[in-house]
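User: Fold this one for me? It's Diguanylate cyclase.
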Amino acid sequence: HDGLTGLPNRTALLEHLERALRRAHRDGRRIGVLFLDLDGFKAINDTLGHQTGDDLLRATATRLARAVRPGDVVGRLAGDEFAVLCEAVDGPADLEAIAERILATLETPSRLLGHCVVATGSVGLALSGPDLQDGEKLLNAADIAMYAAKRDGPGRHRFFQESMRTRLMDQLTRADDLRRAQDAHELTLRYQPIRTPGGALAGAEAIPHWQQPSNGLLRLDEILPRLRQADLRVSIIRWALGAGRWALGAGRWALGTAGRAASGEPGWPDPPPDEPPPLLMVAAWGPCITGERFVPELATLLRDTGGDTRYRLCLELDEDELGTGRPAVTAALADIRRLGVLVCVGDF
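Assistant: Here's what I get for Diguanylate cyclase.
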């Protein structure tokens, strides 16, 4: 059993699940699994402390036990991940009703160590069938559906569909290709002009692209938000910041590749004395800027590239991605602004 919550751990839950599947096969019934992941748990842990995080996990275990039906088995898999095994279900509607009760009970605020804490959850649902007769596969299907629910926003549930697995495999393949492309210096930047209301050129947005062998030039800002591999997203965003070498000449934004100036690029020209430095915008990501290395590396980049006089850096953040880690992001933004870096949220 899990030492923190007293619930069955992953091993014990899988044993329950395998026995339930054998009974269901014998009786001609189906088994349902719900996979729950708390939204924003890391931010709560980081800002309010691990004791509050542990108390929240125990409170979640208690609420889950009250929300499910008699005979359903609640287990804690790892971290803030829980699962519910449901026998004697007639179809998707039964699982959806349980999921809605779980999400409703999680929305009630908890008072933990003097803090009012609200932690929503994302729930994936899966039913046993001809293609899902194994405990691990059934649990994995619910896990995949949970990530689909999380993409829809906090407090959602989704039922597993095979197309979700296909999409995930496509993403994993693309992620592996992206890692190789980054190592092979196949990523490049293209610049989209930023103009003043009067039409004057004020700067550029640096957009990372990938010269993909089979699909041509792909904009990575259309791919990165769908990647589950956080380390890859952070790595590419850091690369884009470091590779943001641009030149202003005859209204043309020069291209920098893998952090090196393109051939014939006239370098980093100083702006005329009567004009502000040009603006360089780079898309960032909440978990990227809250990493402990990000602000020191950004300070070094600005110092080495003349960021205080030759250009003005602006980090663009997506409002939807700030919600789950707002306290940590707010603290990071304060450090970033102290470096003289501009920040915009969403389209500006």
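One thing worth pointing out: DSSP finds ten helices and 17 strands in the chain.
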